[in-house]
Here is the input.
Amino acid sequence: EVQLVQSGAEVKKPGESLKISCKCSGYNFPSYWVAWVRQMPGKDLEWMGIVYPGDSETRYSPSFQGLVTISADRSITTAYLQWNRLKASDTAMYYCARLYTPMSPFDSWGQGTLVTVSS
Amino acid sequence: DIVMTQSPDSLAVSLGERATINCKSSQSVLHSSNNKNYLGWYQQKPGQPPKLLIYWTSTRESGVPDRFSGSGSGTDFTLTISSLQAEDVAVYYCQQYYTTPLTFGGGTKVEIK
Here is the structure.
């Protein structure tokens, strides 16, 4: 069974750093891309970027380029999303999802990680 | 970026009746190399992640009831729930995966009348 299990909710202050994770199992991790998707409270779904664990290639949405870093560790079949300096506007639910190619639908999703940034 | 516009924002349908959701893309998502529309539909219930319902415009994901169907081509697409059930209450999103950044519609909230 394909499973993407994300790390737990986080409460951070503006300016702090954060790295959240997405543990993937039940499939050949290096052969599928992993995407990160933001959903702000009551808002749309936004594609942030993707990583290919096979060779660590990453692609970012222009809206998120330079603001976050996406990575993957093949040895522990885990993908990551990190921020160096959080802002209050980063408060949102973040989902990881699996896709076969960069131009594919997301066929499995993590349960989501709620990130709250507040002073 | 390709902008995906859904309508209506919300709709209320009686149990057993048909629900129709529209999605329009700002440019064609039909790929000439394989004649496929790079368009999918997702269902998101409260407190849950989205779930893939339909891909390539009209192909149902495994396990999705056949009351869900998708149609359209180019820039105009439709998701139809032929006979609404109580468990179908959710927000539905279309998504284009024709080009990065992949983009979603704003969502349509389906409720019971």
